[in-house]
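Open question from group meeting: does this chain pack into something compact, or does most of it stay loose? Before anyone orders reagents, we agreed to write out a predicted structure and look at it together. Recording both the input and the output here so the notebook holds the full record.
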Amino acid sequence: MPDVAQKQLSRRKRLSVRVRLLAIALLPTLVVLPVFLGLAMARWNSKFDSLLKSKANADLTIAHQYFSRILENSGERIDGLGKSAKFQNVVDRGDASALSKLLERRREELGLDFLYLVSGDGIVEAASPARARPPLSKDWPVIVKALNGIPATSIDIFENRDLAAISPDLAKRARLELIPTPNAVPSERKVEDRGMIVHTASPVRLPNVPAAALVGGLLLNQNLDFIDTINDLVYREASLPEGSRGTATLFLDDVRISTNVRLFENRRALGTRVSASVRERVLGEGTPWLDRAFVVNDWYISAYEPIVDSSGMRVGMLYVGFLEAPFTAAKLQTLAALILGFLIVTAGSIPVFLHWARGVFEPLERMTDTIGRVEQGDLGARTGSQGIGDEIARVAQHLDHLLDQVQERDRQLRSWNEELNSRVEERTRDLRMANRQLEETTRQLIMSEKLAAIGEITAGVAHEINNPIAVIQGNLEVLRMLLGTHADVAATEIRLIDEQVDRINQIVMKLLQFAKPDEYAGYDERHAPDDVISDCIPLVRHLLRKSEIDIVRKVGATRSILMSRTELQQVLINLLVNAIHAMPDGGTIILKTQNEDRAGQSGVTVEITDTGVGMPPDVVARIFNPFYTTKNRDGTGLGLSITQTLVTRQGGDIEVDSMQGKGTTFTVWLPETPEA
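Structure tokens returned:
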């Protein structure tokens, strides 16, 4: 019985191995690959359709450019005629007959359907054709502009009676019988007799006339040369696959008035109408159409755009497109070839996969039987073969158990060693960082203690000095009063005493401001740094003139900062005065502002650069220390210290970069004011 059970277990294992291997072999071919192929074909089909629409859009762009060029050329040629010497000579002579002949000749040369000269009071001075009576009852925008001195060209729609007044032939050419068209908007109209005109007017000068214009027009209805030229430009020979053809059409409203779309072999589809969906999109909404559309009797990849007249009204459409059927056929042929190729590859590969699978699961079955005998106690059982799979992994585990243990111990030792080194490096890095933070904190604490001590001493000394200064100033005034005019003998000495007492007052004020900056802070407001700089420059203008120093502004900041205007002016003036003192022989100060983010916070940077003598590194390291100065008796050593205090109190930062003989740059960064 145990042997029977073992055989049944072995048979189930073989079945499991075979099923899984067959599934592994056939799943990619019969499931994954078809799904992937289907997605790829859908993606390719979408991209193919997008490419066709892109081509239609490019074709429409070419047609639009040619159409626009027609308008420009018409305007340029009529404007050139109006400015020509021959035209002006005829006008100046006042010879109406010669003027009419000139207009007739030039109309034929320019290929226009009418050309006339009109004065500002609505009188037609001359016209071609000779009996033309142009419609002047309407206030055509192009003519109004020309009478105001501005050449203008646009598309305008003329009623049939207006065309007949110019020339009966024009009215006849414009008339088209409407042909019932599938998918078009239902309409009771039977005839389209309006004319789409390239309407051009150019200002001219007439003797004793305040304003005049030369007006010309070209009828586009049934203008087949025009539409065939567009078609030839867009769809040159061999630009489309065999069997496809390109078409171009000009619409008046939704009626084809000029087209190379064919109803039959030699009859153009003049008088047919566009489909309702295209009409609604292009003429109703004013947006281009880039998609497949039913054109007369077949489907085309189509591109339509609206045409507007001189009043801005949508009056027609410009269309280009190519036959969709050849592209659809090519697409279907490609898809069929892909599917056929897949079937051929699948039919040829499945037998190969089955053969490979059989070569794999047979050895695995032998290994499984060997493992069963080993588990029963036959430790000498061996398969004598190698393979890959779950069963192979189990055999390798039994055969190489000791080696696996040795390798595992070695791997664990190496892993522990790497982990230990990693932890030591991590702890060392943390210790270094903590040490740097401790040093920085200690330095800041020492500086804070120094500043606190200096502040207390300074405040006391400043208040003590104020009393004797007040006594000196008071007694000096009394002395002036007692001496009267005799004080003039010592006027120079008294003035010097006044100046020095005033200097002592200024020093005391700076000491107090350094010791108790909060008591001297102004009201914080939002400021644009460049506006404050503009206010500061006049305050140091007298110093600039003395040293022949130029100031160059580079405005780049668009953000605002929140700071007392007085304090910001004090910061900027301190830095400007230092820059001026650094250039006794003249030079240039560059004031640059720009937006800059620091540590994730938005702000504004103000750079003050001079071309002065510069500073050595040991001076740069000490310039922000209180009472340190390089100006000997002319400075107190508090200007930059107070400047640093004002900037840092606003959450900003001040930096200095200097090189001897090259100049110095102070960089002040202040945080941006949050919007209310």
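Observations to bring back to the group:
Residues 399-404 have pLDDT under 50 and may be disordered.
The radius of gyration is 48 Å.
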